[in-house]
Design a protein that fits this description.
Layout: E1 10-11, E2 15-19, H1 25-34, H2 36-39, H3 49-61, E3 66-73, E4 79-92, E5 98-105, H4 114-127, E6 134-139, H5 144-152, E7 156-167, E8 170-180, H6 181-186
Parallel strand pairs: 5-6
Antiparallel strand pairs: 1-2, 2-3, 3-4, 4-5, 6-8, 7-8
Helix pairs in contact: 1-3
Length: 187
């Protein structure tokens, strides 16, 4: 049987991560629609073809962003269904070497540890090939699942930002969580 190269940038036992493509639109938007109850009121991923094309286009083209799809590994390590997504936004190089993470699981994958594995892979990619030094996550205080994921991946709580982001019609408070390359290697 011939070996075929993986499309994954990195892979673990159950998931792999890869970049967004425009061809992922149908599956991504279907998963986003299935996951509305899980995501509300925290995030609103694109759920139409037009919205996905604009969203993915920004992640593909903007050097200050990097978007990753978390894919369940299928038979023989092949690409499987989308479990979720993780984006690094506001990437700044130079002396800062930092990016801000945003993420979401799809409903069928929630609570199965797939996003934890995927986030660990994205962190490794950020501190490796992307050469970042620091990653930040801003989380609404009531989003216990997101806070648990940040904590499980080694992020530390650094502070509180009142009225930080405009989400679902109002300015929302956020907790600031961060991880540096040194924290990852020492822990």
């Amino acid at each position: 049987m011939p070996h075929t190269a993986s499309r994954f940038l990195a892979e673990g036992p159950r998931v792999g991560i890869r970049h967004f493509t425009l061809a992922d639109g149908d599956e991504f938007t279907a998963r986003a629609r299935e996951s509305k109850d899980l995501h509300h009121p925290w995030l609103f991923p694109p759920d139409t073809a037009e919205a996905y094309a604009a969203y993915a286009g920004r992640l593909i083209e903007d050097p200050a962003r990097a978007g990753f799809l978390v894919c369940e590994k299928g038979e023989g390590g092949a690409d499987g269904t989308l479990a979720g997504f993780i984006n690094i936004n506001n990437i700044v190089h130079g002396a800062f070497q930092c990016g801000a993470l945003g993420y979401g699981a799809f409903a069928h994958a929630a609570g199965r540890g797939l996003m934890r594995e995927g986030l660990d892979l994205v962190i490794g990619h950020a501190f490796g090939p992307l050469r970042l030094h620091r990653l930040e996550i801003n989380v609404q205080p009531g989003n216990t699942a997101s806070i648990a994921l940040a904590r499980a991946c080694g992020f530390r709580l650094e502070g509180f930002s009142p009225d930080m982001l405009f989400i679902d019609g109002a300015w929302r408070d956020h907790e600031r969580w961060a991880l540096t390359a040194e924290m990852r290697t020492s822990g």
